[in-house]
Amino acid sequence: MKIDIMTLFPAQIEAVLGESIIGRARAAGILDIKAHNIRDYSEDKHRRVDDTPCGGGRGMLMAAPPIVNCYNAIISDLPEEVTPKVLYMSPRGKTFSQEDAKQLANEEHLIILCGHYEGIDQRAIDHLNAEEVSIGDYVLTGGELAACIITDAVGRLIPGVLPEAVCHEKESFEDDLLEYPQYTRPIDFMGMKVPDVLLSGHHANIDKWRLEQAEILTSQRRPDLYDKYFQRKSAAEEAKKRKKRRKTTTAE
Ligand code: 6GU
């Protein structure tokens, strides 16, 4: 998969996406991620990329020409029939979710535009046909960290990026449940013991305990997710489980 990131701070992108799993996938040629410095495409002799907003107001805006020049350079080598999906990182966008990550992982080529200052000339967004994406209800100083988050979440879904041992099926959000608590050695850490069931070697009991823990955690922390999880189970399945749970509570 190819991801081109347009930014004024390519080093910030490299600092994040040059390391760890994504860094290794790039080195292995599975992910082709490039940060492009928008400033290199300024037509100004002082390499300026910003200007004051028309109509007045505070702050500076990123001007359209350097962004569009940068975009044109990225798409210049592409075959005619290839139209990469373009994202613009903005708190104004739709909030990014795991479902979006899955959708984007099907794309062959993504282009991500990072904003700075007080925003971007609307004509740049329009010309690139960019979809605005936010990563949550808070404001960042720029789109770079958001672009890294999108790239990480999408990149790890590409086959070969994660080690074989890591299973996508049992992850938080994959089935609307948060992950159960995990333990490793030492068995007794400062008087805190690993739950007995995990040391029992009884795999059915361990699976049952993990599912219960995941359900408890999800219902406490994310009632919205828990509702979704609950609804997705068939009525029959649900009735069966409730009966079983009633049995375990009376046994306690
Ligand atoms: Cl994508 N950009 C900025 N600047 N702030 C944000 C954001 C993006 N998502 C949430 N806050």
Walk me through what this model shows.
The chain has about 250 residues and is of the alpha/beta class. It has two domains: about 1-155, 3-Layer(aba) Sandwich (Alpha/beta knot); about 175-250, Trp Operon Repressor, Chain A. It is built from nine helices and nine strands. A five-stranded parallel sheet has the order 2-1-6-5-7, with helices on both faces. The radius of gyration is 24 Å and the shape is elongated.
Q: Give the CATH topology of the largest domain.
A: Alpha/beta knot
Helix-strand pattern, N to C?
EHHEEEHEHEHEHEEHHH
Beta-strand residue fraction: 15-25%
Question: What is the number of E strands?
Answer: 9
Largest sheet: 5 strands, parallel
Q: How many domains make up the coordinates?
A: 2
Write down the Rg: 24 Å
Structural class, judged by helices and strands? alpha/beta
Which CATH architecture of the largest domain?
A: 3-Layer(aba) Sandwich
* Spans where pLDDT lies below 50 across 5 or more residues: none
The CATH class assignment of the largest domain is Alpha Beta
Q: With helices defined by DSSP (H or I, 4 residues minimum), what is the helix count?
A: 9
Question: Taking strands numbered 1, 2, ... along the chain, how are they ordered across the largest sheet?
Answer: 2-1-6-5-7
CATH superfamily of the largest domain: SPOUT methyltransferase, trefoil knot domain
Specify the overall morphology. Answer: elongated
Determine the N-to-C terminus distance.
52 Å
The unique ligands bound to this protein are:
6-chloroguanine
Mean pLDDT: 93
Determine the fraction of residues in helical runs and give it as a percent range. 25-40%
